[in-house]
Give the backbone structure.
Amino acid sequence: MAVLKNKVCLVTGAAGLLGSGFAEALLEAGARVGLLDINDKALKSQEKRLKKKYQGRCLAVQVDITNEENIRKAHQMILRHFGRIDVLINNAANDPKVKKGVNSHFSRFEHFPLEQWEADCAVGLRGSFLCCKIFGAQMAQQRSGVIVNIASDLSVIAPDQRIYAQAGLKESDQPVKPVTYSVIKTGLLGLTRYLATYWAHRNVRVNALSPGGIYTGQPQAFVKRLTDLVPMGRMAEISEYRKAMIFLCSDASKYMTGQNLIMDGGRSVW
Ligand SMILES: NC(=O)c1ccc[n+]([C@@H]2O[C@H](COP(=O)([O-])OP(=O)(O)OC[C@H]3O[C@@H](n4cnc5c(N)ncnc54)[C@H](O)[C@@H]3O)[C@@H](O)[C@H]2O)c1
């Protein structure tokens, strides 16, 4: 069912794991999609794949969302191509992934480099703020639109650092979920509530989607420790967030704004 027929939807971080899935779900629902990402190579390959499958209804726009000038240029390009903007999904992030071996992104608080703090917050918070400022303002001017901020179950609970532990390392060397992750995801809920009320009279709805951990072949020991914290006993499948995104972007959620849709297998209620 083409519930988003001809709607113009922008997805930041569209070359990544969740972003490419969201873009595809929106295209399937009939939308025209602007794929925004800093990674030009990955972006172009997504664009090629999606254009072929969805009769050219998407446009790749290479953009660094931490740079206001860059976003303004992207805005002009999008307006020239699509003529309007109906949906913005703030999904891009400096996203730390759990891999085998010590991951340098998983830095302990006492040693967390200021440059990493600045870099993570620049994408997660400044980038989302700037995209709302420029693309959101366009929707406010059109008196219609939807913003979805991608948060995380860690927007409402603290990370359980025990699940990232690696055997044989002393405590001071144990990897942890970085502090920036919690700060950014919690901050995005603030941005969600602020804009939901700020633009309500302009018919721009703003909500957050909080996914739980998605299974992508992480080490078995990590998966066991994480799934023990999840009442449903498993990690998420990437496809499980697609219909939620369509719900948030379409009229199915037209009386919903300022909310955080948490889909974490129940982890945050245990
Ligand atoms: N993967 C998970 O299990 C999971 C769980 C909960 C929440 N999330 C959230 O979902 C979102 C997507 O996560 P993912 O796993 O797909 O990450 P990912 O690393 O696969 O994708 C992130 C994308 O953002 C892009 N990006 C980074 N900096 C950018 C910049 N300055 N300008 C434009 N684009 C930039 C990257 O190039 C990349 O393509 C993130 O906000 C993440 O925190 C992910």
